[in-house]
Amino acid sequence: MRHAFPAMISSGRFCSALSSTFLLTWPLLWLSRLWLIVVPVWLIVVPATVTDAAQSTARAPHPVTEQSEQDEQAKAIAKEVFAGKDYWWKRTSTVNIPKTSLDRITDWLNENIFRPIWKLIGKIFEWFLGRSLPDSFVRGDWSAGVPFLWGAIFVGGALLAWRLLRNFRFPTTTMVPEVPGLSQPVSLLQADVLLQEARERLKNHDVRGSLRLVFLALLARLQDLGHLKYDRSKSNREYGRELHGEPDLSGSFRLISQAFERCWYGGYHVPAGEVAELIVRCERIGTPREGTE
Amino acid sequence: MTRSRQSTLIVCGSLAGLLFLIVVAGSQFSLGKDSRLTCVVEDTRTGGGAGLQDWASRMGIKTIPLRAPLWEVSDEVGDELGDRGNCLLTAGDRKWLQHESEFPQEHWNKIHHWIASGNTLIVVTNSSGSLPDQLANEFTQPASINHLVEFRKEHHKADFSGKSEQLVPTWWGGKMEITGTPDSLVNYPSELHLAGFSGRTILAKRPLGKGHLYLLLDGSVWANQGLDRADNAATLARILNETLSEHGVLAIDEYRHGYGRVESFASFLIALPGAAPLLWMSLI
Q1: ipTM more than 0.95?
Q2: Do β-strands B120-124 and B175-178 pair in parallel, antiparallel, or remain unpaired?
């Protein structure tokens, strides 16, 4: 009341209550002249009206209440936001899974070997990039991917440089097999020369040497036709894989290469007639019957 | 076309498609939940600020990710941020400038001027060592007192009872949950102490001209990790209510964490969502 009454006066409610009460009661007072009864009543009613008005003012939202409502609202919204699926990790719990000896070993390796190595690499990157690059190149702090980006660029650049260097300094040449007994170097492209030499050797009963020349002639013919590329380091299986999409050629290659391997590496005897057939088969490669254009 | 070439093309195409998928949506497949403190609005993990942005929007507060340096805030984002009544939040444990041993004074002067003209800077960090000297000095050398104020690192976490989370009282009677940061301000004036233990301030306020500077020495409180805990959100709401004008904006500094405006091809690559996993794969 002590606080409410000045508020009533300052807000004008007191005056309006006073005047309305007076206007309503004045005609009655004048008529009945019951001053002695009404005045005490009026004196009781007006303060009571004022008290009610003051109490209604006190129930208005107080700043403290409003602030606490805002606090609750802020907390409720935060709870609502983090209930979303993006924050699934807020609803997980730690499960204790007993560690196996393998887990302990990997943990130890991670902690004592891999993690220090990663840290060291990171430090080297930071040191190198921090000193060598101008600040304007990538501004702001380093995000987690930046060292790896530069690592990838560095590795890619090094590979590219190596390839270019290799191409310029050591241009790719067609490899040529060495054939003992031939006076001049034989290009693989000269498959006919090789087949001619194979026939000569077969006539001289050198089946083994003849079969090797047939096989080299086969490689030469296939390289000439663009189906494979000769390389000393390649295995016959790799050549066969290169012919994967050509069943006819692949069949011929398998036939000749198996005969050659059986004789050359296995030491098995291959009849001269069979070698002659292989020479003919090799000659036919590249013709329409063999299925290549 | 031969069958072998077809299969080679299919394999190459599948690999290219896989790489594209990783670049575009790689981060969606991540199972990790931990990230370092950045408050970056795209980060939904512990140290990110996606939740903060969403929360602020629902509270009716306009937010923007700041893609320009802090010291250019008044020059470059004038359209978004008015002259005064704005709030800028920067969070992180690393130095503000990676390549500079000391934060340039001219940069700080610009930030200071922006705050003093009626704006607010909220700095969140776990490590007081990450703060520029000029900023740290604002808290350790307040003009109003003559006793020693300093940052102190508690190695033993004596006040935290061995728990990783702890409730600290705030100036308005609420409780803020922190994760046991070792750094705090010691002997900070009580009238500017907003949260912490007796003699140790975790959340500090510093008036600068017409504006304010706030320092929170715990990275979890307003990041995704802790915004929904205890009265953390309510505490931030109170600060924002006090500092933001009717049309004020809450800007979140992302430039500092590599999400700056695209100024080079490298920064463009890094801005891609799945850049980090792709780079990992490329490197391996």
Answers
A1: no
A2: unpaired
